[in-house]
Amino acid sequence: MAAPRILLIVGGGIAAYKSIELVRLLRKAGMTVRCVLTRAGEQFVTPLTLAALSENKVHTNLFDLKDEVEMGHIELSREADLVVVAPATADLLAKMAAGIADDMATTLLLATDKPVLAAPAMNVRMWLHAATRRNVATLRGDGVSVMEPDEGEMACGEYGPGRLPEPAAIKEAIDKALANPPAIVPLAGQPDFAPANHRPLFGRRILVTAGPTHEPIDPVRYIANRSSGKQGFAIAAAAAEAGAEVLLVAGPVPLPTPPGVIRVDVETAVEMAAEVAGGLPVDAAIMVAAVADWRAADTAPRKIKKDGSGRVPPLALAENPDILAGLAKSPERPPLLIGFAAETNDVIAHAEAKLARKGCDWIVANDVSADPMGGESNRVHIVSKDGVDSWDRLPKQAVARKLMEKIADELEKRTPLERD
Ligand code: CTP
Question: pLDDT tens digits, residue range 264-311?
C-alpha cells in the first residue's frame, strides 16, 4: 500500500510547537507530510523547522505565484489522503464552519474533497463559548472529525478543556481516520461521484426514513435509541444527487437537510408511519430509520413525580406499528421496498429471516459488531431472494452512492421508464 499522505495545517497558538512532534511521529510511521502554516502559526513555529522535519516544502502564502505554477492550491488540497488541522484555533474552526477562505489554510480547507480531522486548542472560555460549540456542531454535522481537546492547566493560567491533544493521541486519531475515513459533506454535482449527466434516478420518486424515533413517557421523558441518522441522510443525499425526487421522513437528529431533499421531521413511530403513508406512491422506499419497537402505553400529561415512598412507577409498553411490514402489505406497496438491519451477530441469517418476516425486496444488513451506531462507515450485505451481495467496509456516503446505482438498475428492470 502507498504511504498515506497527510496535509497538515498548523494554526496559531502556543500549542503550535506540538505540531513539530506530530510531524516527527507521522514521518516515523512512514507517512508523507506536507505542511501549511497560517500567518498566526508562523509566530510560533518557523516554516524552516517544519520543512526540515517533513522533508517537504512548507506553504504559507496563497498568492505565492511560483507555487501556483508548481502546484495549484486546489491540487494541493486534494493530493493528500487526509487533511489534519492541528492546532485548530477557535478562529480557524469558525472560518471552517462558515466556509470562509481568506488565506492559504482556509482556502485549502474549503477546496478539499478529502476527509478533515481537526485537533482544537484554545482557551477554555473560548472552547466553551456558545459560538465555538455551534461551530464544532456544524463541522461535525458536515462530516469533519473534531477531536475533543485535553483538559488541564492552560498556558494562560486557567484550567479546563482546551489544550491540544498530545501528538500521540492526534497520531492515533489520524490512523483511525485513515482506516475508517469520516464521511464528507455531500456536494451537489460532485464531479468524482455524480457528474451532472449521470442521473440514473431521474424521473423516480424515492422515500427514505432515517434516524431514531422518540416515544414520550411524559412531557419531559422519552424512550429512544442511539441511531445517528447519518446513513439515512447520506442515502437521501445520494438519491437526490442521482436525480430522484426525494422525501426524507426523519426522526429527531441534528443533521442538515441534504441539498434537493424534501424533509419532514417526526418524533414518534406513529407519526413516522403516518408521514410514510402520506408520501406514497413512490418508486422505491428505503427504510433506514431505527424505529422504536415499543412506546409507552399511556403518555402522562404531566411530569411523573417521585411520591417519596420509594416505589417505582410502572411503565407499561405498547407495540409500535411495523412501518416496513405495513408498507409491504399495503395496496400502494412500492415496486422496490428496502429495509435496513443493524445486527451484531449471525448477520446474514438474521437478515434472511427479516426479509421473509417483513415482506420487503432487500434487506441491507449492517454489521455493527465492531462499530456501534453513529460511526462513519458501514460494512453491508444486500440480502435478497436472489442471494447475498457483500460489500467492503465503506464510508456511509459511499455505501449510499453504490446503493443508488443498484437501485437504479433494479428499477430499470422492474418498472422501466420511457426516456427519450
Ligand atoms: N422498521 C419499521 N418499523 C418498525 C420497526 C422496524 O419500519 N416498527 C424497519 C426499519 O426501518 C428497518 C427494518 O424494519 O428497515 C428492520 O428494523 P429492525 O429494528 O432491525 O427490525 P425489528 O423487526 O425491530 O427486529 P429486531 O428484533 O432485530 O429489533
Answer: 999 999 999 999 999 999 999 999 999 999 999 999 999 999 999 999
Say if residue 80 is in the same domain as residue 217: no
Q: 335 lies in which domain range?
A: 194-303+312-414
What is the distance in A from the centroid of ligand 1 to the CA of 322? 7
| Residue 246 covered by a domain | yes
Same domain (yes/no): 220, 99: no
CATH of the domain at 41: 3.40.50.1950
Domain count, the chain: 2
3-state secondary structure the chain: CCCCEEEEEECCCHHHHHHHHHHHHHHHCCCEEEEEECCCHHHCCCHHHHHHHHCCCCECCCCCHHHHHHCCHHHHHHCCCEEEEEEECHHHHHHHHHCCCCCHHHHHHHHCCCCEEEEECCCHHHHHCHHHHHHHHHHHHCCCEECCCEEEECCCCCEEEEECCCHHHHHHHHHHHHHCCCCCCCCCCCCCCCCCCCCCCCCCEEEEEECECCEEEECCEEECCCCCCHHHHHHHHHHHHCCCEEEEEECCCCCCCCCCEEEEECCCHHHHHHHHHHCCCCCEEEECCECCCEEECCCCCCCCCCCCCCCCCCCCEEECCCHHHHHHHCCCCCCEEEEEEEECCCHHHHHHHHHHHHCCCEEEEEECCCCCCCCCEECEEEEECCEEEECCCEEHHHHHHHHHHHHHHHHHHHCCCCCC
- Give the predicted TM-score (pTM) of the model: 0.60
Mutate to test the pocket of ligand 1, among 271, 293, 366 (most ligand atoms within 8 A of CB): 293
Is the same domain home to 148 and 213? no
CA of 389 to the centre of ligand 1 (A): 20
227-270 pLDDT, tens digit each: 999 999 999 999 999 999 999 999 999 999 988 899 999 999 99
- Residue ranges around ligand 1 (CB below 6 Å): 209, 269, 287, 289, 291, 293, 320, 322-324, 339-341, 354, 358
- The answer as to whether 185 is a domain residue is no
Domain match, 400 and 275 both = yes
Same domain, yes or no: 213 and 342: yes
From the CA of 363, give the closest atom in ligand 1.
15
pLDDT tens string 193-214: 444 457 899 999 999 999 999 9
Ligand 1 nearest atom to the CA of residue 342, by list position: 20
Atom of ligand 1 nearest to the CA of 341: 20
* Same structural domain, 293 and 351: yes
Residues 110 and 254 in one domain: no
CA of 136 to the centre of ligand 1 (A): 32
Residue 346 belongs to some domain of the structure: yes
Residue 189 maps to a domain: no
